Structure to design on (274 residues):
């Protein structure tokens, strides 16, 4: 084995007496003393512009700045679940249909299950079908034609009158033959009480639920109009063509409003108008 030589530290000590440090420093207040004085030179005045007054802003506080940093973005997902199986006991294998059927048959035989199902809803006392009877009281036929009935609307006040809209969509829309609709008194099937005379065949005619004398209807031309039974069968107002539907009006329906005079109309053109 070879012994490694030990490293020797290189140090040097220097010592000096205090008296050789020099005279002690003593500080005291002393007046100002001009070291250099540079007088102004009037010849330099033409190189500068004198400002009077001079406004200088000074900020003694620390400089601050404002900045924005995007924080960590949270990721959100929306998921749903289709719950088609109820709670099953642990010993029932859902993958075995026979096990589920056996368990259902066992529960359905329990008296508590029958009472629980009966209390889920109120079952009214519906008379048997054999005891219900229905008979024809009146038949209302269109005078002088056999066109299909497109809509029926009962009068709101007791239902004493019935509005029937007739239209034959198989005919050409520019057909100029009369295309009337009718208001019937349910107690008189011999003749209509009022003949509605629209400029185009009506596909829907509805009573106003708040006014028993007014009706609105939708026509094959895409226009809608309203009638007042007290003013006869002519339309009181018909919407102009530039605001009408681009296709025939299938349905009109009054909406629940304060004045009771607002309704909507729908058409195969994909637009619902209020």
């Amino acid at each position: 084995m070879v012994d490694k030589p030990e490293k020797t530290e290189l140090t040097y000590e220097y010592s000096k007496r205090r008296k050789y440090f020099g005279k002690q420093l003593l500080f005291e207040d002393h007046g100002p003393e001009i070291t250099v004085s540079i007088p102004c030179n009037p010849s330099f005045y033409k190189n500068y512009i004198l400002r009077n007054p001079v406004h200088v802003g000074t900020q003694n506080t620390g400089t601050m700045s404002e900045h924005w940093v995007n924080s960590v973005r949270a990721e959100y997902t929306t998921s749903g679940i289709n719950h088609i199986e109820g709670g099953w006991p642990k010993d029932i294998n859902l993958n075995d249909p026979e096990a589920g059927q056996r368990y259902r048959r066992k529960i359905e035989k329990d008296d508590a299950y029958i009472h629980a199902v009966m209390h889920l809803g109120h079952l009214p006392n519906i008379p048997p079908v054999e005891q219900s009877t229905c008979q024809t009281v009146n038949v209302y036929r269109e005078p002088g034609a056999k066109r299909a009935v497109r809509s029926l609307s009962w009068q709101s006040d007791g239902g004493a009158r019935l509005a029937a809209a007739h239209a034959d969509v198989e005919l050409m829309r520019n057909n100029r033959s009369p295309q009337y609709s009718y208001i019937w008194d349910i107690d008189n099937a011999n003749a209509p009480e009022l003949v509605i005379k629209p400029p185009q065949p009506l596909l829907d005619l509805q009573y106003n639920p708040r006014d028993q004398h007014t009706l609105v209807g939708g026509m094959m031309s895409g226009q809608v109009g309203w009638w007042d039974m007290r003013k006869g069968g002519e339309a009181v107002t018909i919407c102009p063509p530039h605001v009408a539907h681009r296709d025939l009006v299938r349905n009109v329906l009054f909406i629940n409003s304060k004045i009771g005079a607002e309704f909507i109309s729908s058409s195969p053109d994909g637009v619902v108008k209020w």
About this structure: The radius of gyration is 50 Å. The first strand starts at residue 149 and ends at 154.
